[in-house]
């Protein structure tokens, strides 16, 4: 590596990079004298100088117009290109950082619920404005819901490590509509003056609260364990394994215990509130998380030949 | 939660797509031909029923009752088309087909059948006629396409009649839903109110209004999609039998 460096300095060996539009194939930019040790990220920065409206996060550069986008960490000289590299550019549209996205989604869901809990005017009849429910389970549900999203916000800031930096703007609008909309829908019923508490009373609420707490802790344990796992960066050397923390022992049975615990938490919340809209929300979430879990499960199996065969994607022994 | 799983689910879809390009096998083709012939016949029965009832009564009011049963049977039978897409023997989107069939089934059962008072409305005849003509053409189009002998007349009719039939059908549907509204509100049909054990409520009246509003963005999209399809299909002189 050091010899190559000296060689390139002696010989003044540089790459040229030609950037074409992926759709029209017209030349957008020609970069002369590019250091072969430059990364794709560096090239994006150079391209950004010529086109200030396309900041690096919204650039997708590819070697083949229909191929996969090149990662920012890739080094130019390691790519299968000659002295002049031809790359194809696509505009990914306005981007927002993952942190911003999650913040908007979760904060919105959290605050929307509170609007209903405090019975802000115009939601329920005007005689009910700013009143509170006589049922203790309603206050408990608010605490649980708020805790759930606070925990997610904390995780977003302190725990998660995101592989891609950004997400397109349109996806955020869609996601926020989903989170805020459902939060409003289930909060409407739970905090309604005509809310009916669970059929089995205190017992039902206590058991549901216990399983909810267990699942929240389980979910947090998995997130922290996965976060520590990713210390070396983007590539996983080994698939996730159970640790000393008993909550992580679910890894013996499933590839994505974080999703398992998440579903568990929402099922608990459903039982705690005995509210059909919560059940429907849980079902939607379960379907989506199953799709993600199955994908991750398949990816693990493909990448690690010795992946434990007893593991399922999301539900032990079943799914 | 990450959306990292999207890449893997696409891999499976690719297989189905390549299978779709090759077209259905011999057995599937035979089944589809039978299916489309039966559906064509069914809607012809409805058409004949309408004409005969009109001639017998001397007026076009209340003709719904004379074709009620075959209408319900054959329109509901169209649910199979969702299955055809899901299994892959028909190269259409499950979501799009599902949406189109469900909207028809919804109108047939959840509006016309459920709200007896609208059955004598003229708007019902409006959409039933539109559906009948459309479906006879559409199913015979599919039949001929599958047999690789598509007469240009059928292709032309399929991509031309909709220009009048589509707005006609939509008008009939909207007027029928609108006619049903007062009865739904009065009887609380299919509605659930608070308080109840499962803390849920559903106002069918409000739901029907939402359905009517949804026609505003949806109808133009579907209509102009068909117009673009028409330009593409009828623009060619060769027999390009693209199944819609």
TrEMBL record, chain B:
Record key words, sorted: Endoplasmic reticulum, Fatty acid biosynthesis, Fatty acid metabolism, Lipid biosynthesis, Lipid metabolism, Lyase, Membrane, Transmembrane, Transmembrane helix
Location (main, coarse): endoplasmic reticulum
One biological process term in Gene Ontology: very long-chain fatty acid biosynthetic process
Catalytic activity: (3R)-hydroxyhexadecanoyl-CoA = (2E)-hexadecenoyl-CoA + H2O; a very-long-chain (3R)-3-hydroxyacyl-CoA = a very-long-chain (2E)-enoyl-CoA + H2O
Localisation per UniProt entry: Endoplasmic reticulum membrane; Membrane
Residues passing through the membrane, by range: 32-55, 76-99, 159-184, 204-224
Region (Disordered): 1-21
Top-level taxonomic group: Eukaryota
Pfam families documented for this protein: PTPLA
EC number: 4.2.1.134
Topology relative to the membrane: Multi-pass membrane protein
GO CC terms of this entry: endoplasmic reticulum membrane
Family membership noted in the UniProt record: Belongs to the very long-chain fatty acids dehydratase HACD family.
Known function: Catalyzes the third of the four reactions of the long-chain fatty acids elongation cycle. This endoplasmic reticulum-bound enzymatic process, allows the addition of two carbons to the chain of long- and very long-chain fatty acids/VLCFAs per cycle. This enzyme catalyzes the dehydration of the 3-hydroxyacyl-CoA intermediate into trans-2,3-enoyl-CoA, within each cycle of fatty acid elongation. Thereby, it participates to the production of VLCFAs of different chain lengths that are involved in multiple biological processes as precursors of membrane lipids and lipid mediators.
Protein name per its UniProtKB record: Very-long-chain (3R)-3-hydroxyacyl-CoA dehydratase
């Amino acid at each position: 590596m050091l010899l190559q460096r000296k060689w390139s300095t002696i010989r003044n060996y540089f790459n040229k990079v030609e950037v074409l539009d992926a759709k029209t194939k017209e030349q957008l930019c020609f970069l002369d004298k590019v250091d072969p040790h430059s990364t794709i990220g560096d090239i994006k920065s150079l391209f950004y100088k010529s086109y200030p409206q396309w900041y690096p996060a919204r650039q997708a550069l590819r070697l083949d117009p229909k191929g996969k986008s090149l990662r920012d960490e890739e080094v130019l000289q390691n790519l299968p290109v000659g002295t002049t590299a031809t790359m194809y550019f696509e505009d990914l549209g306005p981007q927002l950082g993952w942190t911003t996205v999650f913040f908007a989604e979760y904060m919105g869901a959290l605050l929307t619920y509170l609007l209903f809990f405090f019975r802000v005017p115009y939601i329920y009849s005007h005689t009910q404005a700013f009143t509170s429910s006589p049922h203790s389970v309603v206050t408990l549900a608010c605490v649980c819901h708020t805790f759930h999203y606070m925990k997610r916000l904390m995780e977003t800031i302190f725990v998660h490590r995101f592989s891609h930096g950004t997400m397109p703007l349109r996806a955020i609008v869609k996601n926020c509509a989903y989170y805020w909309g459902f939060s409003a829908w289930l909060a409407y019923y739970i905090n309604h003056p005509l809310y009916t508490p669970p059929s089995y009373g205190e017992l039902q609420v206590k058991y549901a609260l216990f399983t909810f707490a267990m699942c929240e802790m389980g979910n947090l344990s998995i997130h922290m364990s996965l976060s520590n796992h990713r210390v070396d960066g983007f590539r996983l050397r080994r698939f996730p394994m159970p640790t000393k923390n008993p909550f992580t022992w679910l890894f013996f049975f499933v590839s994505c215990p974080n999703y398992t615990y998440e579903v568990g938490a929402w099922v608990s919340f459903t039982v705690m509130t005995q509210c059909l809209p919560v059940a429907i929300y849980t079902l939607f979430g379960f379907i989506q998380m199953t799709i993600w879990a199955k994908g991750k499960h398949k990816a693990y199996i493909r990448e690690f030949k010795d992946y434990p065969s007893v593991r399922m994607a999301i539900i032990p022994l079943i799914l | 939660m990450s959306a990292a799983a999207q890449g893997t689910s696409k891999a499976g879809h690719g297989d189905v797509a390549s299978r779709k390009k090759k077209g259905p096998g011999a057995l599937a083709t035979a089944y589809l031909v039978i299916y489309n012939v039966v559906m064509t016949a069914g809607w012809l029965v409805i058409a004949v029923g309408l004409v005969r009832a009109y001639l017998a009564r001397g007026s076009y009011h209340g003709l719904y009752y004379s074709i009620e049963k075959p209408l319900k049977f054959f329109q509901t039978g169209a649910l199979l088309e969702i299955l055809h897409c899901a299994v892959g023997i028909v190269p259409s989107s499950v979501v799009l087909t599902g949406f189109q069939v469900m909207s028809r089934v919804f109108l047939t059962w959840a509006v016309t059948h459920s709200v007896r008072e609208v059955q004598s409305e003229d708007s019902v005849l409006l959409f039933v006629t539109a559906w009948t003509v459309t479906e006879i053409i559409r199913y015979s189009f599919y039949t001929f396409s599958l047999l690789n002998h598509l007469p240009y007349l059928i292709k032309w009719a399929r991509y031309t009649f909709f220009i009048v039939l589509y707005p006609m059908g939509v008008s009939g549907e909207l007027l029928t839903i609108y006619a049903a509204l007062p009865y739904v509100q009065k009887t609380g049909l299919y509605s659930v109110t608070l308080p109840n054990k499962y803390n849920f409520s559903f106002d069918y009246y409000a739901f029907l209004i939402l359905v009517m509003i949804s026609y505003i963005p949806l109808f133009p999209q579907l209509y102009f999609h068909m117009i673009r399809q028409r330009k593409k299909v009828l623009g060619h002189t060769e027999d390009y039998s693209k199944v819609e």
